[in-house]
Amino acid sequence: MGEKALSNLQLELLKLYSTNLSEQDLLALKKVLAKFFAERAIQEADRLWKEKKLTNKDMDNWLNEE
């Protein structure tokens, strides 16, 4: 298997992991990260929605496909 360099995010997380956090702080950090990535996903979905000129009818059609 080929070796891959760590991403900048992975490097920062490794620095963070060298610090012992309380369970409460760890949970708070997980929530912050989850919110960050959820917001990024929503922004990208909104961008694609506008770019593709999608409508609510398009979404209804996709949801009702068999």
Q: Briefly, what is this?
A:
The protein is mainly α. It contains three helices and no strands.
Structural features, described:
- The chain has 66 residues and is mainly alpha-helical.
- The protein has one domain (8-63).
- 71% of the residues lie in helices and 0% in strands.
- The protein has three helices and no strands.
- The chain has helices at residues 8-17, 23-51, 56-63.
- The protein starts with 7 loop residues before the first helix and ends with a helix.
Features:
66 residues; mainly alpha; 3 helices; elongated
Question: Which SSEs are present, and which pair or pack?
Answer:
Layout: H1 8-17, H2 23-51, H3 56-63
Largest sheet: none
User: How many DSSP helices?
Assistant: 3
Helix and strand content put the structural class at mainly alpha
Q: Helical residue percent?
A: over 70%
Shape: elongated
Distance between the termini: 39 Å
Following the backbone from N to C, one meets helices and strands in this order, namely HHH
As a whole number of angstroms, the C-alpha radius of gyration is 19 Å
Strand content: under 5%
Are there runs of 5+ residues with pLDDT below 50, and where?
none
Total number of domains:
1
Q: What would the average pLDDT be, to the nearest integer?
A: 91
Extended strand count: 0
